[in-house]
From TrEMBL:
Localisation per UniProt entry: Cell membrane
Transmembrane residue ranges: 26-49, 61-82, 141-162, 201-222, 242-262, 274-293
Annotated ranges, domain G-protein coupled receptors family 1 profile: 42-291
Any Pfam family: 7tm_4
UniProt-listed PROSITE patterns: G_PROTEIN_RECEP_F1_1, G_PROTEIN_RECEP_F1_2
Domain of life: Eukaryota
UniProt family annotation: Belongs to the G-protein coupled receptor 1 family.
UniProt main location, coarse: membrane
Protein's name according to its UniProt entry: Olfactory receptor
Swiss-Prot/TrEMBL keywords: Cell membrane, Disulfide bond, G-protein coupled receptor, Glycoprotein, Membrane, Olfaction, Receptor, Sensory transduction, Transducer, Transmembrane, Transmembrane helix
């Protein structure tokens, strides 16, 4: 479907999504639909298990519950509309809807960064200073960490969403991407976007890099403490308590860093779309899968729940 560009002020975008043959789009629709169903089911089960099982009422699972909420928000913000574009190519989207999608995607990403950072701090206290764990990680501290993670996610996103909503969009209204993100929006704007581009770079340091560095430093301390444990069983047990978190952090930051460092135009556009798909569609599914497969307490809670049913 060919869409012409003109110089009038635009009120809606044409989100191209994934361009391919009809048979490919149908196959992707089925695959993404199944993935999305499992994402919703997996994260919802994690949340229900943690809320309903007294054994899982611990700080680590408290954070995991909110991590699943973040994954639900991230996936549900993009995937339903992506499925629609696979069935009907070049589906129009109001500018306000596109900006809203960008806002919630940005907010959930930032919140997840801080939640993963809080989880690494929890594992640090549990392994490095276990005698003070219950004193440090009390309900007040947990509530503050989670509240700040969500609040900062939604508040910091406003520093980007407000100037984006004030941009003028004219000319070509085609967004050749799978969802509304900052780079595609800036590309179709006829306003001066220099300040907004600089702002996004400056804010990415405290939002993404500092939490990531905190996680790395935390795990260096954790590994150092684990290696000092005298018995092999003790080292294995200590490491098992944080192995799932390490995998989730690696997947999350790996796809996120690749997403924002890969060029979003030219011959690398398809690569950027692929990375975005991994981040939006598959990462929220991997998190509950990792924790359910590698965490004995989660497996026991699932077995008990299935047995009761």
């Amino acid at each position: 479907m060919m869409i012409s560009c003109n110089q009038t002020r635009i009120t809606e975008f044409i989100l191209m999504g994934i361009q391919g043959s009809e048979s490919l789009n149908y196959a992707l629709f089925v695959m993404f639909s199944i993935t999305y169903i499992f994402t919703i089911a997996g994260n919802s089960i994690i949340i229900l298990l943690i809320l309903g099982c007294d054994k899982l009422h611990t700080p680590m699972y408290f954070f995991l519950c909110h991590l699943s909420l973040s994954d639900l928000l991230l996936s549900s913000n993009v995937v339903p509309y992506l499925l629609c574009t696979l069935l009907s190519k070049a589906r129009p989207m109001l500018v306000s809807s596109c900006v809203t999608q960008y806002y919630f995607g940005c907010s959930s990403t930032i919140s997840e960064c801080f939640l993963l950072t809080a989880m690494s701090f929890d594992r640090y206290v549990a392994i490095c200073i276990p005698l003070h764990y219950n004193t440090i990680m009390d309900i007040k501290v947990l509530s503050h960490l989670v509240a700040w993670s969500w609040s900062l996610g939604f508040l910091i996103s406003l520093t980007s969403i407000i100037p984006v909503s004030l941009l003028e969009f004219c000319g070509c209204n085609i967004i050749d991407h799978i969802y509304c993100d900052l780079a595609p929006l800036l590309a179709v704007s006829c306003s001066d976007t220099y300040f907004l581009e600089m702002e996004s770079i400056i804010f990415s340091i405290p939002i993404l890099l500092l939490p990531f560095m905190f996680v790395i430093v935390t795990y260096i301390r954790i590994f150092s403490a684990v290696l000092k444990i005298s018995t092999t069983f003790g080292r294995r047990k200590a490491f098992s308590t944080c192995s799932s978190h390490i995998i989730v952090v690696t997947i999350f930051y790996g796809t996120l860093i690749s997403k924002y460092t890969a060029p979003s135009s030219g011959s690398s556009l398809n690569v950027n779309k692929l990375i975005s798909l991994l981040y939006i569609v598959f990462t929220p599914l991997l998190n509950p899968a990792v924790y359910s497969l590698r965490n004995q307490e989660i497996r026991e809670a699932i077995h008990k729940w299935v047995h009761v049913k």
